[in-house]
Amino acid sequence: MTQRLGSAQSLLTRFGPLVVLVFALIFPLGANAYWVDVCIGILTFDMLGLGLNLVVGYAGLLDLGYAAFYAIGAYTTALLSTVGHMSFWETLPFAVAFSAIAGVIVGYPTLRLRSDYLAIVTLGFGEIVRITATNLGFTGGPNGIYGIPAPSIFGYQFFSQNSQYYLAIAFVLVVLFFTRQLAHSRLGRAWLSLREDESASEAVGVPSVRVKLWAYVFGAIFGGLAGAFFAARLTAISPDSFTYTQSINILMVVVLGGMASFPGVLLGAAVVVGLPEFLRFMQLWRLFVFAVGLVVLMLVRPQGIWPAARRKENPFGPGSERKLGPPLPLDALRRPADGGGAALEVSGLRRRFGGVTAVDDVAFTVQRGEICSIIGPNGAGKTTVFNCITGVTRPDSGKVHLHDLSLFGRAPHQVVEAGLSRTFQGIRLFKNMSVYENVLVGMYPHQRANVLDSLVHTGRQRREERESLLRCQALLTFCGLAEQAGHRASELSYGDQRRLEIARALAAQPKVLLLDEPAAGMNPSEKQSLMGLVRRIRDLGVTVVLIDHDMNLVMGVSDHVVVLDRGRKIADGTPQEIQADERVVEAYLGRDVQDDEEASAWPS
Amino acid sequence: MGGGGRLAAHQPSLAGPRRFSDRKGARSVSVFVQYLVNGLTIGSFYALVALGYTMIYGIIRLINFAHGDLFMVGAFAGWLVVGAAAGMHLPVPVQLLLAMVIAMIAVGLLAMGIDRVAYQPLLRAPRLSILITALGVSLALENGSMLAFGAGFDTFPANILPLTGFQFLGAQVGYVQVAMFILAIALMVALYFFVQFTAVGTAMRALSFDQDAARLMGINVEGVVLITFLLGGSLAAASGVMMGLYYTQINFMMGFLMGLRAFTAAVLGGIGNIPGAMVGGLLIGVLQSLAAGYISSQWQDVIVFAVLILVLVFKPTGIFGERVVERM
Fold it and tell me: What letter does residue A347 receive in the DSSP assignment?
């Protein structure tokens, strides 16, 4: 039964778009002018929704002033074609460029803000653009601009409604094509990861501000394109078309349809624009009924009418070899030997929080190819040391060197680029992304596809994607997660989530891997297999530094142990030396064996 | 489409009521003081509404787009009560008191109802879903009011409030302005003490830090959220009644611009922060009054938003907001 349903679904996904397109193409032949007009409105909102979907649905940035870009596109085309006597097609590059520039201007100073502050900044920007257009002379003031010539191509003028309708479909198809390309690229995955967990994303190597800025710029570009079309189609524009309400309507299209869902956005536009038209017979009651309908719809389907797929097809399932080629041998994950010497050198590290010195003059060296553990009672400053090394917390002073390269003062994503990646004490996966996508995000720092590659999927980009997938497959196999590649990360068991976090960190091809309490919450057999995994990671040539409280694990797996207490290093040596060290025993058990929660963790 | 030209609908001018407007040829200091007085008066209305935004955001991280419309419903409730009380020939102070109290209770209950029906089921859903629901509620309140009271303007009875005032540094200050300002401040101070020093207030603050932990401590989360909506709604209603009395004209769209400005005020002060909302509201009122007076009322919102954006760029958490430290 489920099999049958499944095949019906795949039939739907394969032929559904075609059926919709064919219907859309023959629709004007049987419909009256009024409904064709409504449909052009829907198609315009399709473009806007698809553009905003990149910003809100993918990158998770709440934009309440999106109509500003729509306005900038529309005014550019209107002014250049009336005053500058350019043809519609000649104005398009300007409309797109000006919107993109506006996107940078708003985005650059503000994208560091928390998302709710961003919401009001965008709202303010939208209002500023509208009020400016209303009050300036050359934009025609409140009356706007008249007499914009209709688009024409090879002498054919898009005057008739039906021709404009088909032009709108062509525009939507173009926008759909490019937004989908972006969504299925390195950039699209980075956007999703930012939406899911910004600091985790930054910590696996995604430069968040730059990536957000691109979301903003592309959103602006498609908004501007829609605006240009809108101006040429109506031949007259006024500031009333670019209100805050319009921005909200576009946002509704995205959220109501289903964030990050392409069919959802198209459907959302049909509902937001079409439904009030259907309700016209209700006259004054129309918008009230629409509003109540909106609330009920959100209550019934909080994820949107057509939410994005929750599970992905396993890209490494049967038949994948034909597309990807044969799986890589696990040896391919091995790091090239880079000689001996220190992998990580920390010296004089100091960090104060208010009056508390969390890390006080800590120094230690981790040799290449070793497994080093940092232990210490709760509050000893272990995680703060990790945060100082990885750029999450800025140390007050000290030196951090990775293979002779200073990491001091670098942002988290730059630390990953330099070759040091980490996992978190509390698991921080991109929960609503699939297992394999989590790993692919981890490869961001090493991928070379630029924005243009992502937009048009060049041969270079496709080759890189294939290589990344193969590497991802090898990593998942290495960590024992190959079967679950298509699952959502949040569906994994606790132990598997820990392993996925490790796989994601390894995806950056680190020289040194920091594991923050990898065994926390694991049962004994999971811990055993984790110890095996840590050793195998070391055998790949990756230096491992880990924090843990489980002494069996630490003493069993480490070559070298560093002990911290109250922010200071109190011991440094082999597991045997540490177990015999009096100061360590004292730090853990107290001088007169007082009750201490760490005591139970000490092996008897 | 959600109300084609919402901004196109006529809004009463917020540049200051004509009754107290400055006279031509006045000295520049007195003009400035006049703008300041007018700005503080409307700023106190903004602050009351901003408090609701900030409390609700602080607790459930929702930008309650319907909040400005609660202010509008409050104005209409006050208008209905004044009309009915005047019909019963009650003395004016009693009319005003009844209008204030009944509007505050009614809108507080309405806000609770909205929370219960439209927001609570979505608290665990994606954050933007509940935002869209709030937009739907806003649209429903606006259009519901239009159906009930018509699309035109309704007016409070003329001369219900004294027009007298006094001179202060050459500026005309109405007794009404002073009274409303004091009332608004009193309500804010009362709210501040409620949040700081009562059990429910403590529970609210706990909720704003960690909802799950608060629940584990035995706090009735849903109940506390409901009380927050009750408080937020009644403060908005108080603001609505005062603004209605001040400008005498009310309209179903009046909550829209108010919502926009009050939200701006909340963010300017540092959203989630109660004193921040008060200061933010007063600042926005003064800024707007000065911008309208010295530059042009057409550009006043541009100036307000430009200042807001500048403040956020240099102080990304608003004036009073604290940096949220994320634990790894």
Answer: E
The band of B27, judged by pLDDT with boundaries at 50, 70 and 90, is low
Residues 108-127 on B with a CB inside 8 Å of A are 118, 121-122, 125-126
Q: What residues does each domain of chain B span?
A: 34-314
Test B5 with A249 for CB contact under 8 angstroms. Answer: no
Determine whether the interchain pair B324/A121 forms a contact, defined as Cβ–Cβ distance below 8 Å: no
Distance CA A176, CA A160 (A): 24
How far apart (Å, rounded) are the C-alpha atoms in residues A397 and A360?
10
pLDDT tens digits, residue range B40-75? 999 999 999 999 999 999 888 888 989 999 999 999
Segment A195-212 mean pLDDT = 92
**Strand pairing class (A371-375; A560-565):** parallel
Task: State pLDDT tens for residues B292-327.
Answer: 999 888 888 888 888 888 888 888 778 887 644 444
Edge-to-edge strands, sheet with A568-573: A420-422, A512-516, A543-547, A371-375, A560-565, A568-573
Total residues belonging to chain B: 328
Every domain of chain A and the residues it spans: 15-300, 342-601
**Residue A202 C-beta-side C-alpha neighbours within 13 Å:** 17
Tell me the CB-side half-sphere exposure of residue B256, using CA atoms within 13 A: 24
A–B interface: beta-carbon pairs under 8 A? 165
Q: Is the CB of A332 inside 8 Å of chain B's CB atoms?
A: no
Distance CA(A563)–CA(A572), nearest Å, equals: 6
Contact B328 A110 (CB under 8 A): no
Q: A237 CB near a chain B CB, below 8 Å?
A: no
Apex A105 CA angle, A194 and B65, nearest 5? 65
Strand duo A405-406 + A397-402: pairing: antiparallel
Three-class DSSP category at B168: strand
* Domain topology for A15-300: ABC transporter involved in vitamin B12 uptake, BtuC (1.10.3470)
pTM for this predicted structure: 0.87
Please list, residue by residue across B305-316, b when 16 or more beta carbons sit within 10 angstroms of its beta carbon and e when fewer do.
bebbbebbeeee
- For B:234-263, CB contacts with A below 8 A are 260, 263
Best A120, A127, A244 residue to mutate vs chain B (most B CBs within 10 Å): A120
* Mean pLDDT, residues A203-221: 94
Residue B136 and residue A291: Cβ atoms within 8 Å? yes
Please judge whether B324 and A273 are an interchain contact, meaning their C-beta atoms are less than 8 angstroms apart: no
* pLDDT at A300 exceeding the cut of 60: yes
Are A240 and B8 in contact (CB < 8 Å)?
Answer: yes
Over residues B88-116, the pLDDT tens digits come to: 988 888 999 999 999 999 999 999 999 99
Neighbours of A408 (CB within 10 A): 15
Instruction: Give the architecture-level CATH label for domain B34-314.
Output: Orthogonal Bundle (1.10)
Residue B220: enclosing H or E segment and its boundaries? none
At B153, the amino acid letter reads F
Interfacial A residues in 420-459 facing B (CB < 8 Å)? 424-426, 428
Amino acid letter at B326?
A: E
Q: What is the pLDDT of residue B22?
A: 45
- Shortest CA distance from B151: residue in chain A: A284
Contacts of residue B5 in chain A, CB cutoff 8 Å?
240, 243, 245
- CB contact under 8 Å between A424 and B328, yes or no, is yes
Cβ separation A131–B309 shorter than 8 A: no
- Cβ–Cβ contact A304 with B under 8 A: yes
Work out the percent of chain B whose per-residue pLDDT is above 90: 55
What is the rounded distance in angstroms from the CA atom of residue A350 to the CA atom of residue B80? Answer: 66
Please give the share of chain B, as a percent, with pLDDT higher than 70. Answer: 90
Identify which of B2, B63, B263 has the shortest CB distance to residue A252: B2
According to the CATH classification, is domain A342-601 in 3.10.450.50? no
Taking the C-alpha atoms of residue B265 and residue B46, their distance in angstroms, rounded to an integer, is: 7
